Every structure is written in C-alpha cells, then in structure tokens.
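so i finally got all the pieces together for this one. its two components total, 1110 residues if u count the protein bits. some of the lines might not be protein, just check the labels. i wanna see the whole assembly predicted at once instead of chain by chain like last time, that was a mess tbh
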Amino acid sequence: MKQYLESHEWAEKEGDLVVVGISDHAQSELSDVVFVDLPAVGKVLAAGKSFMAVESVKAASDIYAPVSGTITAVNAALKDNPEIVNQSAEKDGWLVKVKPSDPAELGKLLSEETYRKSLAH
Amino acid sequence: MNKLPYDPASLPRELTRHYISASEGDIQAMLSSIGVAKLEDLFGHLPQAIRMAGEPPIGAELLYPRLQEHLETLAAANAAKISFLGDGLPSWRVPALPDFVASLRELTTSYTPYQPERSQGTLMTHWIYQCLMATLTGFEAVNASLYDRATALFEAIQCARRLVKGGNTVLVSEAVYPGDLAVLRTLAEGTSLVIRAVPLAAGGVTDAAAVQSAAKALGAECFAVVFPQVACTGNLEDVHALSDLAAGLGVKAVGVFDPMLLGGGGLVPPVRWGQRGVDLVVAEGQHLCMAPNFGGPGLGVFGIRHNAERPNEIRATSGRFVGKAKDLAGRECRVMVLSTREQHIRREKANSNICSNEAFIATMAGAALLARGEKGLKAAIAAARANAASAWRDLTAAAGVKPAFPGRPFWNEFALELPVDVGDFIRDASAAGIQAGVDISARVAGRKNLLLLSFTDLQGEPDLKALGAFFAKRFGPGTAAAPLVEAPAALRREGAVGFPDIAEAELRAYYTRLASQNVSPDSTCYPLGSCTMKYNPYLNDYAAGLEGFQRAHPQSLPEDVQGALEVIYRTQENFKSITGLAALTTQPVAGAQGELVGIKLFQAYHRDRGDAKRNLLLIPHSAHGTNPATAAVAGFSPETGIAVIEADASGQVDLAQLRGVVAEHGPRIAGIMCTNPNTSGIFETRFKELADIVHAAGGLVYMDGANMNAICGWADLGKMGVDAVHNNTHKTWSIPHGGGGPGDAFVAVSEKLVPFLPGMQVVREGGKFLPVRSPKSIGDFHRHQGNFAHKVRAHAYVAALGGAGVRRISALAVLSARYLQKRLEPKFPVLPSGSEASPRMHEFILTLAPELFAKIEATGVTKAQVMGRMGKLFLDFGFHAPTVSFPEVFGLMIEPTESYTKAELDRFADCVLAMHELVSAHPEVLKTVPHFTPVDRVDEVSANKNLVLSEKLAALPEVLSNRLAPTDLQKLPVEEIQKRILAASRTAA
C-alpha cells in the first residue's frame, strides 16, 4: 500500500525496507525526464529533507525523503533510461530503497485517497 | 577625423535623435491613442517625492560628427608605445576574421540562443569554439565561456568542491597571476570556501613540497590544488609532477593554461599532464581574438572531462553548454543543453549565479582559431619563442642585467633582475616610448627589481632592436649573454593539434551564412521582455574599435592610458547623475556580477560595523532567478538565508508581509533585493516605504536595475532609498547582446557603501586622471578593470543622449509598450490577473483566454506547452519570440523598447493579432511550429539525454538554409504569412 507526500513522492513498505519514488502526477508535471541524479548507497536521509533530484529539460525537481534512514539500493536502470520514470513512475520507475531508522514516520504520510483528493483541488 | 567604415546615412536608425526612430507625429499619435497628453504624464503615477527634479545634469547631447570627434580624441589620449606588457593578457597578432565576424549584426546584436530554431547561427559559432577548444586541450567539455580567467578559476574551484564533497579548503599556488588570486579571495570572503595561497619557491615556480605538506596537514579538509602551466614569473611549471602530486593526495587538480601556447610545437596539453591529466582546466582566451582593450571583455575558458568513465562530473559545472541535437524531422542541429544547473531554473540551488557570459568573445575566438588553422597557430608560437630568444640574448648581455631565475625554462615570457630600481626603469623606458614590462618583485619572497617581459608574434625586428638599444644605453655593454634554456621535450606538445586549415574567403562566406540564421533588432522589433533589445548604434562599435582604446594594456602607467581612465571617470560621473547616488564601480562585467558586488558590499558594511550576524536576505517572489542564486553565491544559506516576499493584489511587493518578516527576523536582515520596475513591468510605487522598513531594521536596499530603461531620468534612486543598484549596460545603455554576452554593468551606491567599493575609482587631479582604491575596498571581481570596451560603447551612447535623451529613451520605451498593449488587449488578457489597474511601464505580459487554451489543448498540445508553441509562432512571422513562461508560466512578456516607428509597432501588433486569429481558427498549427526556420522544432529531450558536447572538426559543419528568411517574412502581407503557415502546417502534419 503506497503512501504519499504533499511534495509528490510515494513510499511503500517492502519487507523491512521502504521503496521511494515520485507520483504519476509528478512525472507528468515534470514532462520528459532526462536525468535522475541518483544518490550513493549508504547515504543517510532525514525525513522531509531533499536528498536527490529528477531533471527534465526545463526543470529540476528536488525529491524529499518520506522517512529517515539509510539508502540500501538505487534503481540503476534509471542511469541509462531515465524515461522509465515517465513510463512507470509508481512501479518500475522507483528511485531508492531505504532502511528506515524510525518506521513510525510512515504513519505521518498521506493515504493514497487523501493524496489523490489533494490533486483534485 | 577618420573616415567611418560605414555610411551612417544609409542606416535608418543611426542618425535619428537619441537613436529613436519614431517621429514627433508618431509620438503624438501613440499618446492620443492611449489617452495621455504628454510624455511626462506616462510617469504620473510615480510619487513626487522620488521623482528626479529635472533632466540629469550630464550635459547636452553630442551629434555626429562632433560625437565621433570626441570619441577619437579620447582614444588618442592613450599613448602609442612599443609594448612588452603581457602578464596574462598578452597582445598577439590577430587574424582579420574575428573583426569581420564582429561586423555581422545578426550575430553581434542577437540574444542568448534560447530559441534554437532561430539561433542556429549563434549556436554553431559556439559549437565551433567548444570543438576547437576541446581538440586543443583534450577536454571533451569546454563550456561556451565564463567571464574571464579569474572568475573561471573560481567556478572551477566550486565545481571541484561539489565533486569531492567534504573539504572546504583549496590550495592555490601563487604561481597564478596575482590579479586572479585577488578575485578568488574577494569571492570567497564571507562564504565557507577557504582559499589558501602557497607562496612560490625560490626558483619562481610552484612550491610542490609546500603544497604537499599543506595538503597533508589539512587532510580531508583540502579538496583541490590549483597550479598553472606558465607561472606568473614566466617560468614553465613541471605540470606532470604537480598533476601527479594532486592525484597522490586524492584531491582534484585544477590547471591554468594559455590556449595560444598549446598549438603545434608549443606546450603539452592539459589532458596529458602527469599520469591521468588534470581534472579541470581554465584559461584566459581574450588574446586569441582581441587586443588588451584595457583589460576586457575577457574570455573565461573552462573545461572538464566528459566521457564514459566520467559521465556526470559535467553536472557540477556552471555556464552554458551547446550540444548536438536533431530536429523533429531528424536534421542535425545544435541546442543549449544542461540548463537545469543554471540560475534561471535552479535559483538559490544553481551551481552559480552566472547568466550572461562572454558569448561573442567565444564566437570570435573560435573564428580566430579557424583563421589561424594548424599552420598559423604553430607559426605564431614559433615566432613568439624566436622573439623571446632574441631578446634574451640581447638583454642578458647588458651590464648588470641577470636572468631572474637562471636555468629555468620559459617559452615567451621571461623575468630579469635589474641592477636599478625597477619602478624607475619602467618609467624611464616609457618616457623613451617603450612599455618594457611588469614589476614582479613582490611575487617572490626576498627578491627585488624583477622585470617580466612578454614576447609574441606581434613584435617586429624594429621593436626588439629598440628594446635592446634602450637596455644597452641604460646599462652599457656587459659580458656574454646568459645561456638560453630550451623547454624540455616532456613539457612540449608532441605532434599536431589536428586543426583544419581553411581559406579565409571560405570562412567569411561561412560565418555570413551563419548570421543569416539569426534575427537582429536592426531590422524589426525584437520583443524579448526584460532583455531590452534596443538598437545598438554602429558608432559605439566604431569607438570601441579605435586603435587607441584597443591597444591600451591595463598594466600601463596611468600617464599612458589617460584616454581610458577618462572614459571610466566620465562613466562614474554620468551615472552618478543618472541614478542620483553617491559613487559607482565600473568593474562588474555582468548584471549578475553587479548583484554579487552589491550583496558583498552589504556584507562588508555590516561586518565593518561589527554587525556580523545579518545572514538573511529578503527577495520578492517575482524576482529573476539570478537574485536568489547571487545570494547563495555570496554565502547566504539556500535553506535559511533567503526569505521570499509575495506580491499583493496590485502586483507590487506585499508590504504587510514584509513588515511581518521584519518584525520576526529584524536583527538577522542583511537587506532586500528588489527589481523596480518589477518583472511584471509594474513600478513599485511604495518603494521608498519598503526601503524605510528595511532601513529601520538595520538592513540595506539593493535595487535590481535590469529594468532601468523604463525609468531612467525620471526616478531618483537616491530619493527612493536605494543603497546599491546595478544597471546592465547591455540592456539600457545599448551594448549589443552578442548572442549571450559579453554583458556589462556598473554598480552605483549610497554614501554608506562608498568606502567599500571594489576595483579602482578614477579621480581627476590637476587635469590628470588617476586610479585609486577605496579605503576599505572589498577587493576585485575581475582580473583587471572589467569589460572596458563596453564602457566605451556605453559612454558613446550616453554622450549621444545627453540629459534630455536619458529621459526621452525611457519615455518612448514606456509609450511604445503601452501603445502595443492597448492594441493587443482586446484579444489577449494581461497578467498578473487582478493587477489590470496598475499601469505598465516598458513591458507587459499577455496570456490567452481559457477557451483558447482549451481549444489548443484539444489538439494534443499540453497546457504547459502552449506558451512555448506561441513563442515559436512568432518565429514564423519573422520575429524573435517574446520571453516565454517567465515570470508567469502562462505568459508571453513583450518589451518593444524605444527603437521603432509607429508603423513598425503597428506591423508587429498586426502580426500578433493575426497569430491570435490563426490559432483560434486552426489551433493545430501549434503542433508543427515553427515552419520557416532552417530546422523544425528541436528535440531538446534527446539532446539532453545523449549529450554530445564536442567533436573533432575536420571541416566546417553543415549549415542549413532558412526555408523563408526573416527578412522576406517581414515584407510579406500578414494574411499571406497566415496562409503559408497553414499550408506548411498541413504538409508537415
């Protein structure tokens, strides 16, 4: 079950890890993604702080961490094929996997329903 | 007086009063159309308290031919002497081609190539520059230029810091030029960057042992080492050992080189320094294509590796890159890439605040390298060496004259130790008609009377003889000449560079074709909002090209450059009057650099008062991205150092919010940066109140003067409470935009900031002009005194305006904009919505009605794409596009300037209304625009994904032709253009 940030990231539990990406709405606002500035595995994240960027031709979108923790994996396929973010933002276009330091933080995120409603305004 | 190289009478805008084309009849007709009685009433909404009392007191205008005579007299006041001044800005023989290219108005007067389909000419000239520099250095990515060597070095250091992540200290060998080091120190002040200079070894080269021990002591705090190929003593460095030293330390190596010396038979290219080559390179490139011009415009060369092994380091760089691209039909073309690093997109998170660069100098440098070719460059390098060797034999044979660094290899510059006071010697030589060199005694600890002489292919046999004779006469014959040390093979280039040799006539024809792919404000309204694309007088370029100005070296004795100093003095005096402020610096080379000067002055002022905790800058939401980027470069935290102030319903800064921020953060506030008129073209009528609020909190007020063309001569910035303001001389003061630069600026300040001004102030004493430094000067922003040639152009323009003209240009700029707005309003809503009641100044923002948006979106064009496509439609009518999607995402910002007749503005309005009609009836044309440019819409996505930033040029790249030239489009009836667009669109679809 995905949860969302107002800044258009999603987070989903996968075992004891949290997978992070950007929402389909975010990818369509950004238009064609030309570069994903993937962070290094091992990078420590603080919830709510920007930790990487996704770039189109005319915009660079900062990505904010949904939870605090340590990056354990990055989606290496995006290095050569950043368009996967456009094609499958909420599945194959995931960005990083995080080992959360405080899993309770997930509880503070928006539900899918609340997020989708917020887009309608 | 000289015969002019052009006939002013044949140029429709050149002999008009104040370079304003509109007739008195036009003016009356436009005034009555907008319901205003007289020009003065256009400024009726400016509060009385901040109005200028009358015309700025800068004297009466000068007209052709007296203006020409005045400029020639100034240039002739610079002495013509045999020169051996170099010291990082040498004078080489320059081929004729760069000057020819500088006469192609579509290249010199056009804007930054943001519309690639209408800028292939400019893009290709930059591509050629990037490719040739890449071939010369071995670095795959050389950007389309930075300001000068000094600021390029700063950007390279910042780039290295981003790549290493962690350390804050860079070790800079004092073998780099002292002027460059001074700029680094100025820029680092108040930021987290630490510049640690490493003094020279006794042999006049980088002290490798000292670098090593300093780096070891610093540990992870040290992130890079900077060293040059040619030390500021003329000595060649052991670049292999230094490069390997940096590699061994695990830090980035930044190398400084001289592109003239990298040709065949010259010095080893930086890609081969040491085991792995250095990581970043910078250079000065001005002398590739220009005389010293009292210091500028310069050309900051910046290179980084970009290959399969190091694909992403490029993203840590600043400055513009041109990449290879394809249009939608698969035609090869060029486009600017990697823009997301830049200030206009990334704001305070950008890699730099640089906006305008030295684009046209890069264009000229590329042309100069092509004109020289492999053979010409090799011959120039050999001639310089031969001249240096010949002088070495003559001069070291004079009694008591010794090599300063015996046994050290050099190429074309060497230092001597004189048996007399070197200052006296330089003055005596000057009196004898020789600029003998530079006193470098202070550069090496414990040494005195060291003279550095520079030799190039420009000096002839008689020059060398005169120098030899002066030494012989002054010192008498000595013993034998000192032995000449040859440069070791390891420090020399092996084999050829790989430049093509192309005939000059072919190159001229090629650049002429490139020019035809652009449009120029010469021929028609160039409506780019906030860019002030006014007519650029030919006389300005003629003045800047005068021999007396061109050859002036910035390290000349003041008595040899009285003409240059007088230009700066008059610039100071004139703009003090025009702004109403106390003093100014002419050193900044761009608007963005002017902003940085202003903010650093604020920091120095607060520090000087012991008020060092002011770490917050207030910036309105509508500010151009350069403002927050400048704040970040000055050391304000992107997270906590910038507070954004919103606009209220009238489109002006929300003073209630400002009061709230001031109440909360008062003691932290360093100042406010506010553009006036703002980016929506609205004058901030409560500016004085805003300034009072900030002053009461102890902060200072910076006004971004990018829109000075709307208010000059009418608003008194002193009365408005401004502490610092920059003017872009390439906007208001008629300097050509050069396809993106060189820009130019001055910064004027209130009394409070006068003691801190950077660079030099010129004072007049006993009829002589003298450079002086302010007592608490914040340092230097340029290796010399800025883009002097542009100060000549601006002076020529201001002299042509006089006090009356300064008021008349802004009045006509506002009148032209209001007239156009009046004609277009019936079809286009104006943004920001809700602010309709606020009168616009020199520009306005249009959008489309919601129904029209919907109609267009129904064709498959997304809402976010609509304004961009509308911009492309302007290209189809023979114009450049307006400013698209800034500051309003769904807006087109139009600034007509004062340069056009009512008939020309009417034609423009007719075309824009015809666009509306066309899109309303056939919205699908926006799917295929533009139709008549040399290429279809450029595929920027693939160009950015698959970056190609250089290639080896075996021949000149192909140039495609316009399908319909802008000059032809401008003559067609409007209905005919509509028909042709429709036909072309149907074929394309």
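The first strand of chain A starts at residue 3 and ends at 4.
Residues 2-101 of chain A form a domain with the OB fold (Dihydrolipoamide Acetyltransferase, E2P) fold (CATH 2.40.50.100).
anyway lmk what u think
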